[in-house]
Amino acid sequence: MNKRNSLLILCSMVLCTALSAQIELPAKYKTRELNAPTLVKNRIAAQRILIGQQKLKYNVGFTGVSNKTLAQITGEKEVNAQEITRVKNLQISRKLSPEAMEIIKVYLIACFASKKSYDARTQYYVTPARDQQCGNCWSYSAMGAYEGSYLRVNGASAAAANSLNTSEQHVVNCSGAGNCGPEGGLAYQVFEWMVNNNKNIERESVLPDAGVVGSCGATAPSTNYFATDWGVVDPSGDVTKIASVASIKEAICKYGPVAASLVSTQALQDYTNGVFYENPSNYANPSSNHAIIILGWDDDKNAWLIKNSWGADWGENGYGWIDYGTNNVGRRASWVLAKKASKIIRPVKGIKAVN
């Protein structure tokens, strides 16, 4: 028997949790792991050994996506040089609409980029965790950011955040920004499609995620889910770059949660809690395969707070902490501004107008 197999046998759930920099495995994952397939149990045990050896501050377990392939739960594509140049030129020449300028005058008191921490959930700018049904993470990233902006612009509350649910299936069917894989898609192209074509989004209750690409209906949805502006977070407008920590913080405070990308791996699939760190980000030549939403940060943790699209049985009830400098997180960061709905907008607690 080789050394690795011996370690796997000796590394029980309790022992491995202790090795994982003493990050306790949440109770629900302890229960789930009892029914995990042997292959997954062995993989998790090996990961916990590495986490302990490297003194990392997160844990892994049998999550809702541990038994799936990466192709089933990712879905972001790369862009060619022509597209990179096109978006750069567009961002350089872009001017915010008068409506967007008016919206930006309203700012979130609790959110300053200079603060050590921020969590958009405390302002009800984040909808519940979703669960993608195919390789369409890009559509969930786009809609997660859009829903955050919609709540911010049109009045946020716990009830509003829990009830707002836009249709990622409509985005897949109609936007032209991508598909269910293996080709994937791009979140920023959803924003561009909405703004340039004055397109609104259907409700999830009307058109739920079917896990396949469907046909686009001839009739526009009867919703107020429109967008007025969008942009790339990195000042250069380069959609292939990893935006700086400062730029992303500023964008979150100015526009709300942002769509962004990272490199997803088996270790991330199995992440349960703590601050995830795997491989140092490659700022010179980054890649990515998965789109998420960045909705906050904590400098003491040196980490972003993200919302994923792998259901509530991944991470911390669908959310996670990702170190600022790992797995190219923050690549392709982009923002969107929702239009004010055609109704009376109620004042939002915690927001004031700037004259």
> What is the strand content?
15-25%
CATH architecture field of the largest domain: Alpha-Beta Complex
Low-confidence stretches: 1-21, 344-355
Number of DSSP strand runs: 11
* Corresponding CATH superfamily of the largest domain: Cysteine proteinases
Mean pLDDT: 89
Return the CATH class of the largest domain.
Alpha Beta
N-C termini distance:
73 Å
Number of domains: 2
Structure notes:
The protein is an alpha+beta fold and 355 residues long. The protein folds into 2 domains: 3-60, no CATH class; 70-353, Cysteine proteinases (Cathepsin B, Chain A). The chain is 34% helix and 16% strand. The chain contains 13 helices and 11 strands. It has helices spanning 3-10, 13-19, 27-33, 38-54, 70-73, 81-93, 98-104, 137-154, 158-163, 168-174, 187-197, 245-255, 266-269; strands at 58-60, 106-108, 117-119, 227-232, 258-262, 271-276, 290-298, 303-307, 319-323, 331-338, 351-353. The strands form 2 sheets. Strands 1, 3, 4, 5, 6, 7, 8, 9 and 10 form a 9-stranded mixed sheet that branches. A two-stranded antiparallel ribbon has the order 2-11. Helix 1 (3-10) packs across helix 4 (38-54), helix 2 runs parallel beside helix 4 (38-54) and helix 8 crosses helix 11. The longest helix has 18 residues, at 137-154. It is globular, with a radius of gyration of 20 Å. It starts with a helix and ends with a strand. Mean pLDDT is 89; it is low at 1-21 and 344-355.
